[in-house]
Design goal:
The strands form three sheets. This protein has a four-stranded antiparallel β-sheet with strand order 1-4-8-6. Helix content is 5%, strand content 37%. The chain is built from one helix and ten strands; from the N terminus they run βββββαβββββ. By secondary structure, the protein is mostly beta strands. It catalyses: dUTP + H2O = dUMP + diphosphate + H(+). Its EC number is 3.6.1.23.
């Protein structure tokens, strides 16, 4: 298990895994007063959390499926990436895609965060790429099953 340093300036407990096999942890809104988003409005919602991720790790910020399916609330720039060298507060870009206003209350679970390993690459300029069965087939090229 990897250890991640965290500063919690919110009024809420640290994010945690809700089940033994959860990939993500819920992030909660840290608000002094509720924020209401009208249809198609967006806002950056603070969490009060600051991370120090180990080199080679990122935090991915993703929508919560229940909010998206039931209320039309999702995230822009999703998944958002928090790089290992970022030290600012985690903010979540929430958008209301429904026709009804949606109010975000202090402590509401607004997103989920997944900590993931990554590798940086080095480019190798070439003139030709290895051929595959798919080739240059783009969007929808693999057909329906």
């Amino acid at each position: 298990m990897t250890t991640v340093k965290i500063i919690n300036k919110s009024q809420h407990s640290l994010p945690n895994y809700e089940t033994a096999q959860s990939a993500g942890m819920d992030l909660k809104a840290n608000l002094s007063e509720a924020v209401t988003l009208g249809s198609l409005e967006r806002a950056i919602i603070p969490t009060g959390l600051y991370l120090e991720l180990p080199e080679g790790y990122e935090a991915q910020i993703r929508p919560r499926s229940g909010l998206a399916a039931k209320k039309g609330i999702t995230l822009l720039n999703s998944p958002g990436t928090i790089d290992a060298d970022y030290r600012g507060e985690i903010g979540v870009i929430v958008v209301n895609l429904s026709k009804e206003p949606f109010t975000i209350e202090n402590g509401e679970r607004i997103a989920q965060m997944v900590i993931a390993k990554y590798e940086q690459i080095a480019w190798q300029p070439v003139e030709v790429l290895t051929e595959t069965t798919r080739g240059e087939g783009g969007f929808g090229s693999t057909g329906r099953k």
